[in-house]
Amino acid sequence: MLYHFSEQADIRLFEPRPVAQPSPRSPGLDWLNGPLVWAIDEWHAPMYFFPRDCPRILIWPLPGTTAEDRDRWWGARAEETRMLAYIESGWLARMEKTTVYRYLLPEEPFERLDDAGMYVSRTDVSPLGIDPLTDLSAELRAADVELRAVDSLQPLRRVWDSTLHASGIRLRNAIGWE
Q1: Which residues have C-beta within 8 Å of that of residue 26, sequence separation ≥ 6?
Q2: Tell me, what DSSP letter sits at residue 67?
């Protein structure tokens, strides 16, 4: 299953468009900033159970994650959840009020990227269905993702130097993030 998430409830056709904020890309991958339709697989979908502009960091263990990194970044609940999601506490009220729409997309014509469950299409895509997600915190819990609200995401910067997987989304909106 592939999905696209939006706060818009009435998308009938996804048309390729360039990203709003181009990212630095490795040589040969600059096309990823160009016109594309983006999708995410089912396992990674909880990364988008948030208001669109909400800055967040999601982490999960990898096969090579060390016990030290698990203890440091994961803590006592290491065996109880598959993913941790960190947001700034100032976003909690908005999460409670926001409805996010999960669009079900066909697997064709998407290309798999080797990057946290992401897929792209270079052509228009019609959704197969839509589900409103009205309680984002409950959706995270149902997906076995623990939500942790913190004053600042800054202390998590070093998680990218660990043996855990770390995904940062909309970090340009985080307090003091550069």
Answers
A1: none
A2: H
- Using CB atoms within 10 A of its CB, is residue 96 exposed (0-12), middle (13-18) or buried (19+)? exposed
Q: Tell me if 153 sits within 8 A of 174, measured CB to CB.
A: yes
Q: Answer yes or no: are the C-beta atoms of 53 and 169 closer than 8 Å.
A: no
pTM: 0.91
Torsion sign across C-alpha atoms 177, 24, 58, 51: positive
Q: Is residue 13 helix, strand or coil?
A: coil
One-letter amino acid for residue 49 of the chain = F
Separation between Cα atoms, residue 83 and residue 177, nearest integer Å: 23
Question: Which of the 8 DSSP states describes residue 68?
Answer: H
166 bridge partner residues:
59
Residue of 124, 95, 93, 91 lying closest to 110 (CA atoms): 124
Q: Say which amino acid occupies 1.
A: M
On whether the CB atoms of residues 12 and 124 are closer than 8 A, the answer is: no
The DSSP secondary structure of 88-144, one letter per residue, reads: EGGGHHHHHH--EEEEEE-STT-EE-SSTTEEEESS-B--SEEEEE--HHHHHHHTT
Q: Who contacts 139 (Cβ-Cβ below 8 Å, separation ≥6)?
A: 46, 49, 133
pLDDT digits (tens, 9 = 90+) for 69-124: 988 988 776 567 899 999 999 999 999 999 999 999 999 999 998 778 899 999 99
